[in-house]
Design brief:
single chain
Length: 218
């Protein structure tokens, strides 16, 4: 049996859900087709949350628990052939979330939905104060793999390609380059200063190198 990635047990233990739901979520994250969007991904985000959020409200109750829920469930449903994974993941969260207050459940649900378009203008709409900062933090955490070292960035690209193995090469290239091009053109990839300082320069380098090797389609 493959060893669980570091941090996964701590993340799952932080979730205020029933034990059967916790086991089911862990099984989902270990599905064989999840070469990128699986247990290792959510465990990485949790470790980065705890490391870079240290000393802030983000790692204190109730926000630490709410962010744990958003991290753990944002890819709870993942099928590369469908376009509603975030909505399906949010629905699964709603079915498991009865132990949180209604306002907290709603924040997690809307944050999961926001991961469908990290740079979208509506991602932070209707939030303010800590709720706004925490959602921006979660969205930024999910983009930190763009700022990995070159070797890990390339490895992640290969993992994603395996998830999208059903696509022909031209379709894969078109979708990937459209996403990367949007990231390049974004005036602000990371909304939080701390994660921008840690990951944005390497993200820019990775994006520039990738698009130099395979220019944007026209």
């Amino acid at each position: 049996m493959k060893a669980a990635p570091p941090g996964l047990a701590a993340l799952l233990a932080r979730l205020p859900i029933a034990e059967p739901a916790r086991r089911a979520l862990r099984q989902r994250l270990a599905e064989p087709g999840r070469h990128y969007h699986g247990a290792a991904h959510v465990a990485l985000l949790w470790r980065r949350h705890r490391r870079f959020g240290a000393g802030s409200f983000l790692v204190r109750s109730p926000w630490d628990q709410m962010i744990a829920c958003a991290i753990a469930f944002h890819d709870a449903v993942h099928d590369a052939r469908r376009g509603d994974n975030e909505a399906a993941s949010a629905l699964l969260w709603r079915r498991c979330s009865g132990r949180l207050a209604a306002r907290q459940r709603r924040w997690v649900e809307q944050t999961i939905l926001a991961t469908a378009d990290h740079l979208g203008g509506d991602a932070l709409r209707g939030t303010r104060g800590h709720a706004r900062l925490a959602r921006a933090w979660l969205l930024d955490l999910d983009l930190t793999p763009l700022g990995e070292g070159p070797g890990e960035f390339t490895a992640n690209t290969h993992r994603l390609r395996r998830e999208f193995a059903h696509l022909q090469e031209d379709a894969w290239d078109a979708g990937r380059l459209a996403f990367l091009g949007r990231m390049v053109e974004a005036p602000q990839r990371f909304r939080t200063r701390l994660l921008a300082a840690q990951f944005d320069s390497r993200a820019r380098a990775n994006l520039a190198r990738t698009l130099h090797e395979k220019p944007l389609l026209t």
